[in-house]
Structures are given as structure tokens and as C-alpha cells.
Amino acid sequence: MQGKTYDIAIIGGGIVGTSTAIALQNTGKFSVIVLEAENKLAAHQTGNNSGVIHSGLYYKPGSLKASNCVLGRQLMYKFCEDNNIKFERCGKIVVATNKEEIAALEDLEKKGKANGLKGVKRLSKEELNEHEPYVNGIDALLVPETGIVDYTEVTNTYAKIIQLHGGEIKTNSRFFSLSKDGNAHVLETESGEIKAKFLVNCAGLRSDKVAKLCGVDPQLQIVPFRGEYYKIKKEKEYLVKNLIYPVPDPRFPFLGVHFTRMIKGGVEAGPNAVLAFKREGYSHKEFSLQDVSQLFFYAGFWKMASKYYKMGIGEFHRSLSKKAFVKALQKLLPEITIDDIAPGGAGVRAQALEPDGKLVDDFRIVEAYKMIHVLNAPSPAATASISIGQTIAEKIIAAQN
Q1: How many CA atoms lie within 13 A of 97 on its CB side?
Q2: Which of these, 387, 345, 392, lies nearest to 43 by C-alpha position?
Q3: What is the pLDDT of residues 377-386, one digit of tens each?
Q4: From CA 129, how far away is CA 257, in angstroms rounded?
């Protein structure tokens, strides 16, 4: 086979795929190509989230999420400063609305301090209302290192850097299959054959499928959860100063409906977490028989469903009923009414699910022969993207030795 052989081919042009390309280029050792299925970068998880730079508050000390988020947050702020990307280190408040939530709030405080967060502070009801006058709460946690940014802008800046340093990016290049040519991989894509010595799978919502096409058993399946947002109308934006979060349910890797001031203006409320019937299913109308069949024939799905069906029913109810969604919001912000919000956007979270029905809580990065597969990298992967990219680059260098 003729043509160029790249050192590294990266499948997936989201924030993790592009940050990995930069980290590999920074070693000075590798030629890199990034392959994106859609007609633009950051088309899915990266470009459809609330733009929060997470602090590292929620994650188990010592976990990949904790270590990569804390380092990644610091690197993200520096990257934005160095590249004139607008951001704010605005802080957020996590609010306990009843006595039953105080123990979980205390646990978050301990995790945050164990993960090295600075300035984390408990707030009394009076102090809480100094920060957020319209919030209902009896106790709260101030997390000053949290911020906001536009991750699509970050990803597009990553892309410019990749290309400036000789890397290539191909959109409309969905990956179909893998074969061998001597010691190199041959990737069959929508834009033609690509030859590379090493492959990195950062395919997000399709990462498990890509792994299987590469002959790797992912030992999990991606389940798409759609998060739907409402926008607070302009005349009621004064109700939210910065970021307001509930105390999350420790059983789930979701943070609950919250309020987020956006870097480009406006305030979002949400998201919920409903099962999507297509991997890229951003509305109720989108349906894929193939995706649903794979889900329903997966034993892990039914084990999860039997355990959490009550929560799932509640999420679907909020998805279909604006009144129910507002009721959930009023737990934090009693003054908000059904007339104060309008439909916003939606995102789909690629959540890995194990065969025993367990939702994978940490990042999952799996190595195979001349391959690395990023099989679970939902939030806070955008915050942690530079750190994740560096981690993958280190693994590839180690694999060469």
C-alpha cells in the first residue's frame, strides 16, 4: 500500500481527541492525524455541555477523575489565559436544602479538601444568601475554583495548534474497519484509507463500537443519557449570580438539575438525565433501531433498569412535563415559575455501563496492542482534557519502549 504512514491516528475530534493530539505533538516524536465522523469538531459531548470548568470536588480521592480534573483545571485556566480564550473563575455553591443532605455535603467538603481544592468553605444560611440571595438552603459549600468557558472555542483552538505544528484533521471521516499492513494499522474511513503505526480511540458515544471494530472487547457498553436544558428568560436572570448546584445523589454519576451562568451570556437550568433512544439522540423524536436493540439485548441494561427504574421514571416525567421540571428547580430557587424559563439545548452523555449493571464512575482507559481506547470519559473530561491527553501520550511513549 502506498501513501503516508502516520505515527498516530486518533479517532474522535472532540476535546479529548484534540488535546491528545497536542500532547503527542509536544513530545516531538510523532506525526498525528485526527479523524472526526461529523462535519465539524466538538459536535457532541464537547459542544453540548454547560461549559463548566470543574474543580474536582465530587471525585473519589486517588481516582483518575480526581487527579486529572484537579491538574486539568489548572492547565485549562492557563491554556485559556495563554490563548486569549474568554473564561471566568466565578466559583459555585453547592446547596443543602434539608437536614438529610448535610451529611453528603460534609462528605463533599472532605473530598474537595483531600483533592487539594483551595478556598472551599462552608456557608451558613445567611452567608449563602449573601452570595445567592434567591436560593433556598440551610447549609452550603462555596467552591471558588470552579469556572466557566466555551469548550467548542477551546477545541477549535486546540485544532489550530495541531495544524500549526503539522498535524492533520479530517472531518467527515467516520471510522468503519481496521486491518493490518505489516506493522501498521489500516483504518478504513469515510474519507478513504488511513495508515498509522498506533491508534487512539476517543470516539465518545461510539467508543465501545470502535473498540469492537478494532478487535478489542470493551467489557462495557455505552448508554446514551440525554440531558435537556431550559434557559432562564432575560428578565429573570438576576435570580442567579453564578453557579448553583444541589447536593448530588451519591448513587449516580450525575449532578442533578442546577443553574449555570454561561460565558457567552444567559443562564441555563438543567440538565435532567433521560435514556436516549439513539446515541446522538438530542430529542425525543430521534430513534435508532440498531442502538435501541443493542441496548435492550445487553444484560447490564436490564440489571441497571431494575435497580434504578423509579429514578428513571422521574427523569422521564420531568423531561415530558415542564411543570415537573420547574418543581425540581424550585427546590433550589423557589421564586422561579413556569413562565420564567424557555426550552434550551440538549446534550448526550456517553455513560459506560458494565455487564453487572454498574454505571462506570471513573474514567476508563484501556490499552491493547498498538492501541489505546478511551472507553469512559464523560464530565469532567472537558475540564481534564489537557491532563488526559498527557496521560495518553505517556502511555504511548511507554508502549514504544
Answers
A1: 15
A2: 345
A3: 999 999 999 9
A4: 20
Within 13 Å and on the Cβ side, how many CA atoms surround 378?
23
Joined grid coordinates for residue 353 = 455501563
Question: Of the candidates 12, 63, 18, 20, which has an alpha carbon nearest to the alpha carbon of residue 253?
Answer: 63
CB 154 within 8 A of CB 148: no
CA dist., res. 49 & res. 80, Å (int): 18
Asked if the bond preceding 271 is cis, omega within 30° of 0, the reply is yes
CA–CA dist 340, 319 (Å, integer): 17
For the chain, how far is it from start to end, CA to CA, in angstroms? 27
Strand locations in 241-362, DSSP E?
A: 243-246, 258-261, 267-270, 274-275, 341-353
In whole angstroms, what is the distance from residue 254 CA to residue 348 CA? 12
Q: Interior CA angle at 46 toward 234 and 54, to 5°?
A: 75
User: According to the model, what pLDDT value does residue 311 have?
Assistant: 85
In eight-state DSSP terms, residue 27 is: T
Other Cβ atoms within 10 Å of 219 Cβ, number: 13
Q: Please, where in the chain does CATH 3.50.50.60 lie? A: 5-46+152-219+362-400
User: How much is the CA Rg of the chain, to the nearest whole Å?
Assistant: 21
- CATH no., domain 221-359: 3.30.9
Q: Where are the alpha helices (DSSP H) in 27-89?
A: 64-82
Chain mean pLDDT for the chain: 95
Q: Which three cell numbers stand for residue 69?
A: 480534573
Nearest Cα neighbor of 366 from 252, 210, 179 is 210
- 150: which 3 cell numbers? 466555551
Question: What's the maximum distance between 2 C-alpha atoms anywhere in the chain?
Answer: 71
Grid coordinates in use for 24? 503527542
Numbered ranges of CATH 3.30.9 in the chain: 221-359
188 close to 344: Cβ distance less than 8 angstroms = no
Query: 21-25, 354-358, 396-400: which has the minimum mean pLDDT?
Result: 396-400
Question: Strand 147-149 and strand 168-170: pairing?
Answer: unpaired
For residue 119, is it left (φ>0), alpha (ψ between -120 and 50) or beta?
left
Distance CA(357)–CA(71), nearest Å, equals 31
What single DSSP character describes residue 359? Answer: B
Please report which confidence band the pLDDT of residue 253 belongs to, taking 50, 70 and 90 as the band edges: low
5-46+152-219+362-400 homologous superfamily: FAD/NAD(P)-binding domain (3.50.50.60)
